[in-house]
Amino acid sequence: MIKKIFFSGLMLAGIINATAQQRVPMDQIVRVASYLSSDELNGRGTGTTEEKKAAKFIAEQFEAMHLKPKGRKGYFYDFSYKHDANIHDTIKANLKPKIGRNVVAFLDNGAENTIVIGAHYDHCGLGLDGNSLDANPKGKIHNGADDNASGVAGVLALAHYLSTNGFKEKNNFLFITFSGEELGLLGSKKWCEQPSIPLEKINYMINLDMIGRLNESTKKLLVYGVGTSDIFKETIDKNNAYFSIKYDSAGVGPSDHTSFYLKDIPVLHFFTGQHGDYHKPTDDADKINFNGEEKILELIIDILNDLDTKPKLNFYKTKSVDMGNSSFKVTMGIMPDYAFDESLGMRIDGVTDGKPASKSGIQKGDIIIKLGTYKVDNVQDYTKALGHFNKGDKTTVTLKRKSDIKTINIQF
Ligand SMILES: [Zn+2]
After folding, report:
1. Fewer CB in 10 Å around end: N or C, the chain?
2. What local confidence, expressed as pLDDT, does residue 239 receive?
3. How many CB atoms lie within 10 A of CB 198?
4. Mind giving me the DSSP string for 155-174?
5. Tens of pLDDT, residues 155-181
6. Hey, what domains does the chain have and what are their CATH numbers?
7. How far, in Å, is the centroid of ligand 1 from the Cα of 123?
């Protein structure tokens, strides 16, 4: 039995490889990722001239594929936001709003339902927004090749495949490249609040954020959100013969799929994992594993085709850590980094304004190693430790920030 499956698997892999070159346009992926992460675009900071320049470039690619504009003005979906890394939340209300820009395109197959394929294209710009992990970030270009020129190149490659395969899928496709992700999923949140198509017509959402660093020896691929529909895991397993996949069932995670999950839409998020260049000026295009990215996109195409034969997916709520809606009596208001190496502590991937963590000065990138007297080696430890506290309790958080160990007072 095992032998037989192995044999037919090999044969199938041969057939898939033979068509691989035609399905995923490698030259386009390299061109898109290299341009977006070039110094010319100054790190694509939200609200900057270069963000608008990147948006224009993406819109031109959509137009060349004859996709319909689905933004507010052509392909552009502008949204206003307030952000200043140096200003405390309480006076944020007085800030002058800035404009961020999502780019949205539609492949109309005349179908009832639509699949959203998204990736954020903004990054940390010149290190002025308080989200860089460089010791001295100001003025340095944060090129963001993996984070997330790689994901945008993936969205455009999938758009290319789906619009040129000569086949009408039973779903429409909406391609969105988001801005404001690095400032807190702003672009996806705004789009979900005022969507270009009715949310109830969205079958599911696929998010690509950092798919350019596949490790060739481990072949580890992280897939989040598999618990948000009952059919995801078996479909992925059935189509995967190449990757060592680490599944996470949660629909809430550190990227734009969270915004869709919170609107009761099944989500899948693909991610090749953390690395030392994360949110630093050294996240450059020459470190992208384009062959690995191609293989991920091949897998996604197989998943899309497989699910296309099925009715609209059912949505399931999943357990999430510390989002304030669970059984916890207290919340710190942080988003854990689920991909961070377990046993080294719990890395924070986002801090919610106005909650205990942000009030105590805890920052994105900090690694919690102790909560009160409880040792924190990973997300599970953190969750358990949190269960010991009640609202109003005071305690300390011990954390690593760059090379320092800090102890910070906190009140729930
Ligand atoms: Zn990202």
Report:
1. N
2. 98
3. 8
4. HHHHHHHHHHSS---SSEEE
5. 999 999 999 999 999 999 999 999 999
6. 2-308 (3.40.630.10), 334-411 (2.30.42.10)
7. 7
